[in-house]
Amino acid sequence: MTPGARVAAAITVIDLWLSGSDGLDRVLTAWGRANRFAGSGDRHAIADLVYDAVRRLRSACWVAGADAPGARAALIGSLRLDGEDPSAFFTGEGHAPAPPDPSEGPRELSDATEAIRLDLPDWLMEHLANASREALSALRVRAPLDLRVNALRSDVARARQLLAEEGIETVPGPLAPSCLRVTAGARKVARSRAYAEGLVEIQDAASQAAALASPPQPGETVLDFCAGGGGKTLALGAAMQGRGRLIAHDISALRLRDLAPRAERAGLTVECLGPCETASLAGVCDLVFVDAPCSGSGAWRRNPDAKWRLTPQRLGELVATQDTVLDAASQAVRPGARLVYATCSILSDENGDRVRAFLDRNPAFRLEGDPISLMPGPDAGDGFFAAVMSRAIRD
Ligand SMILES: C[S@@+](CC[C@H](N)C(=O)[O-])C[C@H]1O[C@@H](n2cnc3c(N)ncnc32)[C@H](O)[C@@H]1O
């Protein structure tokens, strides 16, 4: 495909996403299936164009002269924000889109409101008043790929060497000793031997750090209450050196489906419990980890469509779920043991506010130290929050 045809395809994908309710990933996958002529290089290039434009949807549309989100404006503006001349792609020749007309900018980004410049919905600005502008700007930029070296299978030096032999270059990553940041060959990771044999997992640096907010010890009974795909479960299991009882629970049995084979690859045994199967764990766990469902605002550079779909009503629903989940999970904590509440959110509504509300409802628990509050950044990881609480020996 020509560069212009790739831009045209990216416009089609964003159009479909804007007019439907599916996530961007699904729309992209469906487009790829319906357009088999596009090779993997084309599909990757189109995905990059799409994600770059959606991450910066408001600012891109602004510099393309549009006051409302639109796919064509998003692409024109996104190219401009990257210092490219859109006319080089919008040629009208072959499958390329028609050339930009004078109503399509350029317009100075410095004339836009702060919410537009930061690519955030207007209503969210007051919720983010305490977040630094650098952290919010980081959400407009493509995220790096981080790996967690699985100590049960390898050490960091050996994992780096094996990855390098397959053309995947890494440097030591931030926030966690097991973190490697991929600097070249990111697209080869999922097909690499190191990945297939469980030496490394794909996991953001901040997620790795959050999993170790209260490091589990070998021999402990550890419950990952919102285990989902199991990223934290595997990190917890590695910290336990594979010894003890590791239990994964989620309200969605479907989301736990891939955990058993992932755990086996990582050299771990995990008990998987479906919804409402935790009654037998009441008061027995040494550590209960709650990676609560949240807005995902700390990871919006990876999932930029989520930020445009979040509404005040949805945030309210999430907050109510977080309270319910934390109350339910706390039942499994043994007297004297730990409860960790974590989110990949940067909104205090979902973080400190939830912990304070929980402690007010549950006087048997108290906060241990200051919560970890990680903000997204080029040399950091995603935004993440983790608070460690402990249950009194006697209620
Ligand atoms: C942030 S995701 C977990 C990600 C996962 N821990 C990881 O590291 O890959 C939140 C999870 O909470 C689950 N969830 C939502 N409501 C729940 C509930 N009431 N009880 C338990 N899990 C719930 C969701 O199905 C989802 O898998």
Automatic annotation (TrEMBL):
GO terms for molecular function: RNA binding; RNA methyltransferase activity. The keyword Nucleus does not apply. S-adenosyl-L-methionine binds at residues 250, 291. GO terms for biological process: RNA methylation. The keyword Endoplasmic reticulum does not apply. The active site is at residue 344. Residues 88-109 are annotated as: Disordered. Belongs to the class I-like SAM-binding methyltransferase superfamily. RsmB/NOP family. Keywords: Methyltransferase, RNA-binding, S-adenosyl-L-methionine, Transferase. InterPro entries: MeTrfase_RsmB-F_NOP2_cat, MeTrfase_RsmB-F_NOP2_dom, RCMT, RsmB-like_ferredoxin, SAM-dependent_MTases_sf. Transmembrane segments: none annotated. This is RsmB/NOP family class I SAM-dependent RNA methyltransferase. Residues 135-395 form the SAM-dependent MTase RsmB/NOP-type domain.
